[in-house]
Amino acid sequence: MKSTFRQSMAWLHTWAGFTFAWLLFFIFITGSLGYFENEIDRWMKPEIVVVNETIDDVEVFNLAKQQLNTLASHADKWYIAYPTTRDPFIKISWLALANAELGISKQWHEEYLDPYTGNITPTRDTSGGETLYRLHYNLHYVPIVVGYLLTSLASLFMLIGLVTGVIIHKKIFIEFFTFRSGKGLRSWLDIHNVFSVLPLPFHLMITYSGLILLMGISFSPVIDATYGEGRKLHRQFYDVSQTENKRFDTTNIPAVDLSLSTVLLDAKQRYKNNNISFLGVIDRSPNNNTEQMGFEVWLDGSEGIEFATLITYRVVNGQVQIEESIGKKYSAGKVYDVLEHLHEGLFAGPYLRWLYFISGLLGAAMIASGMIIWVKKRQKNSTRLINLIDRVNAAVIIGLPIAIAAYFWSNRLLPLEMVNRGAWELHSLFIVFTMCICFCLVSRPAKAWKNMLWLAAAIYAFLPIGNMLTTEHSLLSSAQEGDWLMLGFDVSVLVFASCFAVAAALFKKEHIAPEHTSEISKKPHPELGT
Amino acid sequence: MEILSQISLQLLGFTLLSLSLSRHYDQVINSVKRPSKPIVWTLRLSGYGILLLAIIQGIKSWGLALGLVYSFATATLVATLLAMLLTYKPHYLTFIFVRLKP
Amino acid sequence: MKFTKKQILVSNVTCRVLIALVGGYILSSLSAILIALLLPGDKINSIITGLMLSFVIYTVTVIVVFTTKTTLRAGAIVFSLCTLMYFFYHYLNGITV
């Protein structure tokens, strides 16, 4: 492409990064929020009653079973989620089968229990943390396959950007810790390096594993050619590749006595060191025939980067048998599994979870700083196009956080009885995002950046106050009640607000430099022939 | 506790490594003199050594897979912190040098 | 008709992008298929391995396409590799079927 290898690589780095930068920024931000999916979910369902003291497992079970019996006697699957540190509440969920007579389609239902009364706590209709994190690969408004393909393509560009970035960065070791502030473009390049090089293992891991998670869709012709064509065979391929190695054991529970309560007691005895996170009944039959039912116990705190261990109790030949999954059968499947676990980070405790989140944000910051550099390098011949891109940069880089704050605000402000409330929360995210873009398009870039930063600071700073006014949760009450998730969310939001405020305050100083260069740039530039 | 020792080991290791680079050496001890070769090599080797120790400690306390995740994640945190420290408050790091100097 | 320097550059870049993206996709798919067929052991295992490596091959292809001296040569490299692999795949299929 260019005369030397390094120059070609620099060219590729610039344009591979540029092409999908906005989409990648979106993916990194929403994906990072996914690491706090449960915590965000709790905030968006403020009605949930949090369990503070330890409740006896059997007691939880009794409460849950009572509700499930009345609400979901015909369901195919039952699950009881036990209070854990990340989800300190009791949740029951069930899979209602399709019923043609009543016109119901197959659907999951979930409800939260008040541990003190045993009643269902009605929660607001919300999209919650899950929908927010799913944005990072389904892109919401497009058909799901298009979302998958677009994110895959963007990730491929990201991978190319990372590899070429490492190649062109001559002094990767010498400038490992280098950040020279207040030097215009030099500082931006430094900060781009800091954001890229220091979390490089994370960036490479997250990009590559992201690609691999979607490889069945992006490289489906390969499965066509090697395994077989058609949806059914693809499904079969996934199922076979996910085959788990199983360990079998027999119990001395009499087959007639097999029920969730006996399973619970047996599991508690067998795995004394592990906490139970889920109890489930699968393949339920309405007439309570235990012959074919399976009883699942999910254990917390297993080894390594596995998230949980699954044990299933079933009646086999008149005897109750236990089946424990001990990892994937295929070695390539194991590698895939490791990458998937690393990508999702479900195993991470608070410390690692925060680092995952920060690394994700550093990735987003890397993309953002790359975009800013792209503009700054071209500002000398300030054309309309460059100006436009600078504006959209401001709209995307600061607008997206604002839009996400709008998502949180809409959760508190939309009327509770609104139809499709959850969907409208997401609509408000995108409406505000569009508004941010429009706002930036009509104002001068420097002004747009500054105003957006202040707006972001304000919208985040007022979020805890909004929370206090619309629900009974305030910073103080959360601290008193030991509702750490609620408190953590509110405090983090305040931290973000102050970061935006600091950025807005510092912005003026920083922006003198480019203003200066645009003065110079009006003179003819020998190299560009203007 | 394990996390704390992981962080402090890596902080020490990365600080030593950064001091083996003349730019940061100058920032920290405020001189234009280049560090002599033996000093650079002592700093570099001890830096890498301590980082290796940190990784071993990580693997020992969390197992291979999780230990590596912990070490890499901590490295990101520590190195970012250090980069900021070196830019804005380099003299905070002089303590290492005082200790090292006979 | 004479092309300006800019037009040549634009068409050159477009060609390379197409070679890199489309050619790279075909090349990495084909190599994934070949890896799946050639690796000994379980079929599922080899398919997953092939799929996982295809992204590495894709990335390397893109980098090679953009570092080769001329666009023509880049196209020729990718095209010839693809054809070679395609025939090899059919040859292998002839044996296994």
UniProtKB/TrEMBL annotation, chain A:
Q: InterPro entries, from UniProt?
A: PepSY-ass_TM (IPR005625)
Looking up Pfam families in the UniProt record yields: PepSY_TM
Query: Which sequence ranges are marked TM in the entry?
Result: 12-36, 141-168, 189-217, 354-376, 388-410, 422-442, 451-469, 484-507
**Keywords annotated in UniProt:** Membrane, Transmembrane, Transmembrane helix
**What is the name listed in the Swiss-Prot or TrEMBL entry for this protein?**
PepSY domain-containing protein
Q: What is the lineage of its organism?
A: Bacteria, Pseudomonadati, Pseudomonadota, Gammaproteobacteria, Alteromonadales
UniProtKB/TrEMBL annotation, chain B:
- Matches recorded under Pfam families: DUF3325
Q: Which residues cross the membrane?
A: 38-56, 68-88
Keyword vocabulary terms for this entry: Membrane, Transmembrane, Transmembrane helix
InterPro entries linked to this entry: DUF3325
By what name is this protein known?
Answer: DUF3325 domain-containing protein
From TrEMBL, chain C:
Q: Does the keyword Transmembrane apply?
A: yes
Give the transmembrane ranges: 12-38, 44-67, 74-92
User: Which superkingdom heads the taxonomic lineage of this protein's source?
Assistant: Bacteria
Swiss-Prot/TrEMBL keywords: Membrane, Transmembrane, Transmembrane helix
Can the keyword Transmembrane be found in this entry's annotation?
yes
Q: What is this protein called?
A: DUF3649 domain-containing protein
Q: Which organism is it from?
A: Shewanella electrodiphila
